[in-house]
Amino acid sequence: MSVMILGLVIFLGVHSVRIVADDWRRAQIARVGELAWKGGYSLVSLVGLALAIWGFGQMRLDPAVVWFPPLGLRHAVALLMLPAMILLVAAYVPGNAIRARLGHPMLLAVKLWAFAHLLANGRLGDIVFFGAFLAWAIVAFAAARRRDRAAGLAAPASRLPATLVTLAIGLVAYYLFAMHLHGWIIGVPAIAMG
């Protein structure tokens, strides 16, 4: 589990620079340039994510069980992942009402994803992994909203077609991931059939 924790510290640490040291971040971007900053940021993030995922997989080989979630909570996960997937898509489709209304839908998607997976997984490694993402997303969302208020940002304009596209892509992505990709990538079917 130590590799997973190291990966989480690196990945979430890099993603927390704007929360805890935004002035330093801006100074570094001014010093090295935005492209170099994004390149280094991406590289360190990728290393952290790879370590966290590999460590998570290793943890699953010899898990320490803290609690046994009721089987019915899997249905709650399936239900919560639908809006999480739509929120994830909303972060990338310009002009949708979801993003305009809620602000920072990616962070909201991470919150829902992590919370949902905490409900249905009782291994210590799962609790650390998903709990770390949930705690980070809560703090990051609050910090992002504070930055928005301090900057006086108003909600961007939204268009119905962009919102409908967001919903459609989110539903298709949910279907593909829940019915096909989750089992293939993670090794555990998201929705058990039969």
From TrEMBL:
It is a multi-pass membrane protein. The keyword Nucleotide-binding does not apply. Pfam families: NnrU. Keywords: Membrane, Transmembrane, Transmembrane helix. The chain crosses the membrane at residues 40-59, 71-93, 127-144, 164-186. Its main location: membrane. One of its GO terms (cellular component) is membrane. The keyword Iron does not apply. Residues 3-189 form the NnrU domain. It is found in: Membrane. This is NnrU protein. It comes from Bisbaumannia pacifica. The lineage of its organism: Bacteria, Pseudomonadati, Pseudomonadota, Gammaproteobacteria, Oceanospirillales.
